[in-house]
Amino acid sequence: MAEQVITGYKRWLEGIGEQGVFFKNFSRNIFRGGFEWSEFVRQCYEIGYRSMMLVGITSFIMGMVLILQLRPAMLEMGAESILPKTLAVSFVREIGPVIIAIICAGKVASGIGAELGSMKVTEQIDAMEVSGANPLQYLVVTRILATSLMIPLLTVIGDAIGLFGGYLALNFTDDISFSLYFHKCIASLEFIDLFPALIKTVFFGFAIGFVGCYKGYNSNKGTESVGLAANSAVVTASLWIFVIDAVAVQITSLLFYR
C-alpha cells in the first residue's frame, strides 16, 4: 500500500514537471518569428464561432431558470423589483463565466485533446518535426492563444443572452418593459463586477487550451490513448476552472471588498 502511494506521488510530481517543461516550450515559441496567423484565425473560428450556438442556448436557459427559481423567494420578501439586479450581478460575476467555461471545457478541451492525440498516434507530429516544421508553434501556441481570446468573448455574448432569457422569463409573469429591465441590469453592475469576471475568463481559456494541448500532445501510442487524452483533458480542465475561480474570488475579495 505504501509503495503504491509513493509511486502515485512520484508520477504526480513527474506530471507537474512535464507540464512545467511544456509551459516553458509554449512560452518560448510565442515570441519566435513566423507566427501561424492563418492557423490562429482558423482556431478562433473553430473554438469561438462553432461554440456560440451551444453557449447561447445554455446561457438563455440558465437566465430563464434563475429568474423562475428566484422569483418565488423574492415575492415572499416583497423584493421582486430587484430581480433584474440580482440576476445581472450573479450571472455576470460568477454563474455565466463558470458555466460557459465548463461547457467549453467539455467541447473545446476534449476536441483539442482528441485531435492532437490522433496526430500523435498517427505520427503526424513526428513527421512535422522531421520535415523541419515547428509543431509546438503551429499546433499548441495557436490553440492556446485562441482559447484565451475566444472564451472571454463567448462569456460576454453568453452574459447578454442569459440576461435576455431572464427578461423573457420575468415578462411571462410581470409586466416589465425591455428598456426598464436592461436599465436595472446595467445600473446594478459596477467595475468590480465586470473587470474581475472578464479577467478570470482569460485564465479559464488558457487553462482549457493548455490542458487540451498538453494531454493530446503527450498522449501515448495506441488508439485507446486518444479517448483517454480527450477524457482526461475535460476532467483536468474542469478542475482547473474551479481552482482558478476560487483563487479569483479570494483575490477580488481582498482587493475590492476590504
Automatic annotation (TrEMBL):
Subcellular location: Membrane
Domain of life of the source: Bacteria
Pfam families: MlaE
Keywords assigned by UniProt, alphabetized: Membrane, Transmembrane, Transmembrane helix, Transport
Chain segments annotated as transmembrane: 47-70, 91-112, 144-170, 191-217, 237-257
Bilayer topology annotation: Multi-pass membrane protein
Family the UniProt entry places it in: Belongs to the MlaE permease family.
Protein name: ABC transporter permease
Species name: Mucilaginibacter aquariorum
Source organism phylogeny: Bacteria, Pseudomonadati, Bacteroidota, Sphingobacteriia, Sphingobacteriales
